[in-house]
Model the fold of this input.
Amino acid sequence: MTGEKITNVLILGSTGSIGKQALEVIDKHTEKFRVVGLAARDEVSLLAEQIEKYKPLAVAVSDDRACRQLKEIYKHKIAFMSGIEGLQEIASLPEADIVLIAVSGAIGILPTLAAIEANKKIALANKETLVAAGEIVMAKAYEKGILIIPVDSEHSAIFQCIKGEEKYLKNIWLTASGGPFRDFSREELEKVNPGMALRHPNWAMGPKITVDSATLMNKGLEVIEAYHLFGLDYDRIKVLVQKESIIHSMVELVDGSFLAHLGVPDMRIPIQYAFTYPERFESPAQNLDFATLASINFARPDTEKFPALALAYNAGRIGGTMPTVLNAANEVAVNCFLNGKIKFTAISSIVEEVMLKHRPEKEVDLDIIFNADDWARKMATELILSI
Ligand code: MG
Done:
């Protein structure tokens, strides 16, 4: 591999689940990738370890105090930035070729836009950015001629299956594991606690997305994400439960053919593909052993028991600020569930109530999006306090 250009990678959210797995991918291919920047919220000790190991040029930490602590240690060796401004600044770091957006939540909007503006290749692992501000982000990417490569496993799968078949596309099929409570009764769902919700059967992910997977909101957010990435009407974006998470998604073509992407459920595969696209290399993930795979099961998602999926379709179809509001209310509700303030089943109810109170605006710009996001967070917080 000598003589090949090294790709300079910047990771926003390096101490999170996707960030750590991205670093494992980079460790496997040190001759191809170099880490030029890291950004995290407040996990100082892990971030310090990463700084020691990868020696980045710049580091952004959202939390001011954490940033000062790190500055003390490294003094002038590294450029430190803090707050949301720091995230935006590091996202446009001149040395970076590709920016992995792996922060959690709508906080990803501004750094994603900054990276696009700076002509970086985007590996997008943050679906909330597209849910909350998809039109703005996609329009900016189009204007700048920037390819957004999805890291979300379903969208990576579709991105790969769709290639060359775009004009024959009939539907896309997002697969869902159904989460840990797929077979729970309504009564059992009432008793779900954070510890239970954080044990996903197939995927190793951060707490927010793991709870979203359990409510099926994750799949709902992915439907909206797919709408923006692939430009299909909501009627053509289907969801299918495939509980082993072996089929990562499928495209259905006009002649009745289905193209599916299969593999072990390991996020390092789609992360690496986003880094190496359009090429492929060996990955740190295991190979899929079909002989030991007993069966692959399919089922329709149960939107009665898991209303979040239907709420997301609804929000997507209404469009404008409604998906922003759905996402913001969900972020607040999930956080409160994780802190033991509300029941598992209240997450979807809160989101639904906030949506019912919202008067969506059709035409959006960044100010309108942030106002709607802010309004929805306050409304969700108020509703939770009144429970
Ligand atoms: Mg996914």
User: Anything to note?
Assistant: The chain has a mean pLDDT of 95. The chain has three domains: 7-150, 156-267+293-303, 319-387.
